[in-house]
Amino acid sequence: MDREQFRKAGYAAVDRICDYFENLESKDVVPNVQPGDVAKLIEPEAPEQGQPWDEIAKDFDRVIMPGITHWQHPNFYAYFPANTTYESILADMYTGAVSNPGFNWLCSPACTELESVVMDWVAKLLGFNEGWMNAGQVGGGIIMGSASESALTVCIAARERFLRLHPNTPTSELVIVGTNQTHSLGAKAALILGVEFVAISTSAEDNWSLRGETLETELKRLEEKGKKPFILLATIGSTSTGAIDNIAEVTEVTAHHPDLFLHIDAAWAGVFLSLEECRQECFLETINARAKNANEVKNDAAICAGGEVHSFCTNLHKSGLVTFDASCLWIRDRELLTSALDVTPFYLRTAQATSGLVIDYRNWQIPLGRRFRSLKIWYVLRSFGTNGFRSHLRKLVNLAKYFEEIVRSEDGVEMFTPRSFSLVVFRILDPSKNREIENKLNAAFIKRSNEEHKIMLTQTSVGGKQCVRVAIGSRETEERHLKESWEGIIRPLIAKAREDVKAEAN
Ligand SMILES: *Cc1c(COP(=O)(O)O)cnc(C)c1O
Questions:
Q1: Which pLDDT score, from 0 to 100, does residue 351 have?
Q2: Who contacts 156 (Cβ-Cβ below 8 Å, separation ≥6)?
Q3: Listed residue (444, 406, 443, 439) closest to 424, CA to CA
Q4: Which among 65, 129, 292, 334 counts the fewest CB atoms within 10 Å?
């Protein structure tokens, strides 16, 4: 392809993308394909002779589109959303043009400097104070690919911190602590690091959030067993039900366990901190607070005090208008990362980094190379403005409130947990109130909804009870979609699920 061909193909691609969004609502959310259907349409080997672009371009509609699940569709309520925006799509085009692995400042000064500035923009948007910002040169933010990568990275930093405080601790004693609502990223980080993951039980009466007393008891129990918890993964907005751990109580406990690193996984819900009305619920004050003795402990052996939040992660690529991927990680002290991850062979030395004038983001992360992700955040925040960003999130919360009303006014279903921002979790009830029958009923509903291509929902199971998650987040969703989804699809499927369970019992 030469430049003139690219010009034409590029214009055509933008036209196709616009057509896609124009026709999105008329498509099924879930594609009607069986495993292997898409692969069958693809040649088993790359062609020896190059093919004309026209032929290649056509295959996006023939091969790929029929196998796409439409996450931007107004009736997509599964998992958590994955917003896209035209601004991000354009940013990804430019990023492709200046393609570079951005691992140190010299790779492309603009990539590093834009990232360190926009991460401060986002920090301010969420209400974080100076201590979290790159400008202060102590803490700072970095854009990673995923919340799992962010969590694994801080687990490495936390392990190194613990080993500096307690040299020669055997790996077999090291423990990552979370709760039974922590995302699987906790267990995965433990698996990768070869340490144990301990999940503290949470209860329905606490809305599945971690309380200080429970944490204290568990830490004591671990201590008695000779275990060494080195990091606590707390959650703001759990994947199952949007549960929020009580961060204020947690820091009161961790103040007495100064070697325990505290990370907050707010992959989905963190962006709601941008809304004034959500800040208290999300413990902003605690996130910003320094421990009383924070300045005393700042020495080589123990960076950061106990009793404060050490790192925080939220994904802008869920409800934050930035196209996948943009996982924002902030750390209170960047040395926690660099002292664990800085390996600088001779060929990677640069005068700018050696003199301490610039950030080398490679020393804050696991891989060397990194994508130029800050451009899409910059474009989105400039084009929407912080007001537009907030309006988008308020709209999602209002839609979820509307849906909550629908659930509350319907017989035979209940809100399983209180609405969390834009997530509604409901449970289908049986007059018998028998837990097993109700579980079967909810499972039968999900099975039915999986066969229905016009809507996409997911299930969860909490405290032995199965229920249905409705995560509202597409920019295309309006009240009418929620109303029509309920009346035209969900309500009839609930009736069918009741018949299924009855038929099975007979
Ligand atoms: C989505 C989500 C994750 C996983 O995010 P990735 O970026 O895909 O790793 C982790 N934790 C919570 C609470 C989430 O909502």
A1: 80
A2: 193, 340, 341, 366
A3: 406
A4: 292
